[in-house]
Amino acid sequence: MNNFIQDYLVKLYIPHITWTDIIEIIIIAFVLYNVMVWIKKTKAWVLLRGIIVVALFAIFAYILNLKTILWIAGKTISVGIIALVIIFQPELRRALEQLGRKKIVFGLFRFSDGRDKGERFSSKTAEEIVRACYDMGAAYTGALIVVEQDMILEEYEKTGIAVDGIVTSQLLVNIFEHNTPLHDGAVIIRGDRVVAATCYLPLSDNGNLNKSLGTRHRAGVGISEVTDSMTIIVSEETGKVSVAVGGELIHDIDADSLRNKLEYLRRRTIDVKSFRIWRGRLKHEGKDV
After folding, report:
1. 216 within a domain of the structure (yes/no)
2. Residue 174 carries which DSSP code?
3. Number of domains in the chain
4. How far is CA 264 from CA 72, 86, 268, in A?
5. Whole-prediction pTM value?
6. Could you report the per-residue pLDDT of 223-279, keeping only the tens digit for each?
């Protein structure tokens, strides 16, 4: 028995692990974990399960040496890879956009757009936005306001009508007033100016959102998923104000909370982590999140 164990230990090859191997293992584990988390949060999860079934079927065919099936599988692999890229195109684009928004190298790849990064907009603009939102909420007037950050929203700005007016509560209220030409769609705010109205935004396909939410809320979450903007939504049905950042939505915030968030936003870049901390603080205070 001892000889058998000794022979086994002699044959057993234990590779020498260096610090570079450990770094590689950590990087690969980190990438695989984030890929799996990303897949589980998208429609790709269902498609991945289908791919696993097909892969198991191919392994079964290989074991039984089913040559015709293996030949067909081999010929369709290259086509299948292209098909997967086409099928996952929206998810891949969203993943790359989110990767580009992560501050992994502390702004190494951040390019200036010519705007002053000290303050994004004035405190007066923040106050005008807050006043307009709660005036519209009191009148049950629906509104969708997108506050631009680092990512320029020109792509969505082009879908609307140019306004280029200084942000005031009166202007915002007039834009979203019922039966006016500009009330349908979103307003985009850049700095201290309303740059466009009636803009079309992408709808979120997040299955975890409340099914009772309407198109306005889904559009607000949708634009926050693909850009770093902050979106303010005023419900036409309830008059309540909500905020969306990074795909996260918080319902029914009060004027002070919105004012504090805008004040924080105008001085520095808002991120999802800080938004979640703020969201948790509101929840602790007993507010509906």
Report:
1. yes
2. H
3. 2
4. 58, 39, 6
5. 0.61
6. 988 888 899 999 999 999 999 988 888 888 999 999 888 888 877 544 445 555 545
Buried b (16+ CB within 10 A) or exposed e, 134-151: bbbbeeebbbbbbbbbbe
Whether the pLDDT of residue 221 is over 70: the answer is yes
**H-type alpha helices, the chain:** 2-11, 19-40, 44-63, 67-87, 89-101, 123-138, 154-157, 169-176, 215-226, 255-267, 272-284
Burial 252-287 (b: 16+ CB within 10 A, else e): bbeeebbbebbebbbeebbbbebbeebbeebeeeee
Over the stretch 6-64, which tens digit does the pLDDT of each residue have?
Answer: 665 555 666 677 888 889 889 998 888 877 776 666 656 667 777 778 788 888 888 88
**What is the pairing mode between strands 193-199 and 161-166?**
antiparallel
Whole-angstrom CA distances from 174 to 71, 144, 146, 282 are: 66, 13, 16, 31
- DSSP result, 211-227: TT--HHHHHHHHHHHHS
From residue 272, how far is each of 15, 25, 212, 245, 248 by CA, in Å?
42, 28, 24, 7, 8
Q: Which two tokens stand for residue 79?
A: 């086509």
Q: Are residues 71 and 139 in the same domain?
A: no
Q: Is residue 109 part of a domain?
A: no
Claim to verify: residue 135 and residue 247 sit in the same structural domain:
yes
Who has greater pLDDT, 176 or 82? 176
Which residues, including other chains, have CB under 8 Å from residue 191's CB and lie 6 or more apart? 115, 120, 121, 125, 148
Question: For residue 227, how many other CB atoms are within 10 A of its CB?
Answer: 23
In a domain, 159, yes or no: yes
Q: Domain span at residue 93? A: 2-101
Cβ-based neighbour number of residue 16 at 10 Å: 5
Q: H or E segment at 244? A: strand 241-245
